[in-house]
Amino acid sequence: MGNGPLSGVRVIELAGIGPGPFAAMLLADLGADVIRVDRASAVRDGESTGGTDFTNRGKRSIAIDLKSERGREVVLRLVERSDVLLEGFRPGVTERLGIGPDDCLARNPRLVYGRMTGWGQEGPLAHTAGHDVGYIAITGALHAIGRAGGPPQVPMNLLGDFAGGSMYLVTGVLAALLESRASGRGQVVDAAIVDGTAHLSTFIHGFLAGGIWEDRRGVNMLDTGAPWYDVYETSDGRHMAVGAIEPQFYAEFLRRLGLDGEDLPAQYDRDRWPAMRDRFAAAFRTRTRDEWAEVFVPSDACVAPVLSMTEAAEHPYNTSREVFPDLAGHRQPAPAPRFSRTPAETDGVPVLPGGQTRAVLDELGFDDVEALLKEGAVAQA
Predict the structure, then answer these.
(1) Which of 38, 65, 83, 161 is catalytic?
(2) What CATH number is attached to the domain comprising 289?
(3) In what side-by-side order are the strands of the sheet with 303-305?
(4) In 157-225, which ranges are E strands?
(5) Is residue 206 part of a domain?
(6) 143 among known catalytic residues
(7) CATH value at residue 187
(8) 187, β-bridge pairs
């Protein structure tokens, strides 16, 4: 539990992997009291999901046997005392466990029930296994990422799981929570990674509809087709990123690159983009990445050094804003966004399964904790 605009909001997270835990972490970063429900068997078997799993930071953990009648009842009693429940199981799983939306809303009509899946709760693929790369493939987004003549390039699992999944789940939950405060009625939020990833591409679909985007890789303004929106290798084998779109920024880019007095084609002369790219590439190969960074940063040329994840944590811009602070003995990305009146904070400590079972249930007014522990309905690490 921390400070932030969501202080006072209680979230029950049914433990999972990937986008669900990240969404719950974001809510915790914003001040919500997130109680992660781990499997009781994980505690009994000595499993650990703490350590460096930063998506579990800022939460508390209790362990419950979801397959037992008494464990199910514990979850429903938690729901009565909470504002939000998040789950990321396949469609129908929580219903079979007796903790689906109908069960939970019957106990707490104001509850926001957030569901995180890849394919959504309905449709021909709803019950099919999948991962980020497949979800973004079916939206067309993966097809669009890569260079002309090359294969699609996988953008780690940031685009689908976390951008198309977690962020849309959080957006939906917050909107539903706001509406619930006004109407007194909760609702179910179905956040599918496919839906979110498709929605993220709205801007590009507008270009496509307007005839200013080709439905193929590496030939458009923002997909490395344009030589002034690309990455270039430097003399030391590193890279600089160029995004000089607007004419005034492009002019500054040419000036700092040392080509402003050269005979270059017009910026939007597509037929001569290959020749322009060759000129830019040759210029960048004359200095190291860090030497070019000294030339371009800061400036309005819209050029930046391509940093490794380790380097990014040490970059002066990031250190000045504490983008990667030391939390719980590890360098971690800081909570975002930032607020002027209720700053979000986190202790950064990833929770261990069942570590707070007894304390949380006691705090929430459960008077039968010892009996629940003895019966095995809950477990304490």
Answers:
(1) 161
(2) 3.30.1540.10
(3) 229-233, 239-243, 303-305
(4) 187-192
(5) no
(6) no
(7) 3.40.50.10540
(8) 112
